[in-house]
Amino acid sequence: MNPWMLLAACILAEVTATLLLNKSQGFQQPLYGVASLAIFGGCFVGLSIVLTRIPVGVTYAIWAGSGIALIAIAGWLFLRQTLSPVQLLFIAMIATGAVGLKLSTTTT
To answer: Within 10 Å of residue 69's Cβ, how many Cβ atoms?
Structure first.
């Protein structure tokens, strides 16, 4: 599998797991919490495969930055959390950086 596609799948899974973790309400809803942990486990397995093809610094920067941006947007869309215009600007900057890293990195 293309390592960039696997990284994207891992990021989307991480966002899903984070939303489920929020839905678990501090593990008061344990099924959501257990599902979150299982998905996080799958994310790390996938990430370990990605790291064999993409440098760790680039991988982690894209993983972390994209995850932060996407979970902030998901919180706004699904959890009714607010985002100010300045926060949206910085999310756009994170996305720009992730795209720039992808375009400037070759895989092994």
So the answer is: 21
Residue 93 lies in a domain: yes
> Would you say the C-alpha torsion 28, 32, 34, 36 has a positive or negative sign?
negative
Which residue segment(s) compose the domain that 59 sits in? 3-103
Is residue 66 in some structural domain?
yes
Decide: 68 and 83 in contact? Cβ < 8 Å. no
Q: What is the pTM of this model?
A: 0.88
pLDDT digits (tens, 9 = 90+) for 6-23: 999 999 999 999 999 999
Classify the phi-psi angles of 101: left when phi > 0, otherwise alpha if psi is within -120 to 50, otherwise beta.
alpha
How many domains are contained in the chain?
1
108 in any annotated domain:
no
105 and 58 Cβ atoms separated by less than 8 Å: yes
Q: How far apart are the first and last CA of the chain?
A: 13
